[in-house]
Amino acid sequence: PGSGSDLASLQTRAEDKGDHYLVNGQKIWTSGANLADWCFCLVRTDTSKKHEGISFLLIDMKSPGVEVRPILLINGGSPFCETFFTDVKVPKDQLFGPLNGGWTVAKRLLQFERDNISAGLGGGNIGAPTAVMSVEDAAKKYVGVDETGRIADHDLRRRIIEHRMEARAFQLTVRRAADEAKSNAGPSAATSIMKYAGAKVAQDRNELMIEAFGHQGLGWSGEGYDESELNLVRAWLRSKGNSIEGGTSEINLNVVSKRVLGLPDPK
Hints:
Elements: E1 13-16, E2 20-31, E3 38-44, E4 54-60, E5 66-71, E6 80-91, E7 95-96, H1 102-121, H2 135-142, H3 154-183, H4 191-213, H5 227-238, H6 249-260
Antiparallel strand pairs: 1-2, 2-6, 3-4, 4-7, 5-6
Helix pairs in contact: 1-4, 2-4, 3-4, 4-5, 4-6
């Protein structure tokens, strides 16, 4: 909390108490923490260093001192939580990887997370109800068609075509990257490209859907809206988080700049 996207500035401490670590601190945006039996947790084991002072612990969520509070999102769901650790005892054998070597593990896990998120975004949304119709069908239903059967609003039609081209290119790129990952024994820094592009494609799709639905895309509950219309509003609101989760778009662009393109740090 309070660190934004600077994960390495985490302050949750794990003090060496001989046969165990004593963990105190707080985490935020812990996915599924209210349902989990165990969690992997980045903790600070050396306060004199930033990246090199972080370790990776496996923690039993039923341990005394662990408290979880779901966070209500703007779309009405609560997939994320705040997690509090107060004098939580963690056995030494639950250290994953080397002491103070947790940052290396975390970077690798982030690549897998971004790979996974990208796959979900390729379907249109992540963490939201599945779309019940395509953007084209929505526009034809709510905006109408011309005498040739095309979407009546030519500007909207043009933007939908551009979106479909980008979405198709994104899906093909994800598929190619997945094939390359099989031969390279896992994902690479290129997952940041997929995460950034996938978030944009998903958000563009939802914006176009809301525009096509018109006033039927403004509902939250009550009469006058069917289930697909209410699901769309929630999907649109949930998609706002696509450019934040798994590393913000800005963070992912920095990774692409350094790790993929090999560009120097700005002076």
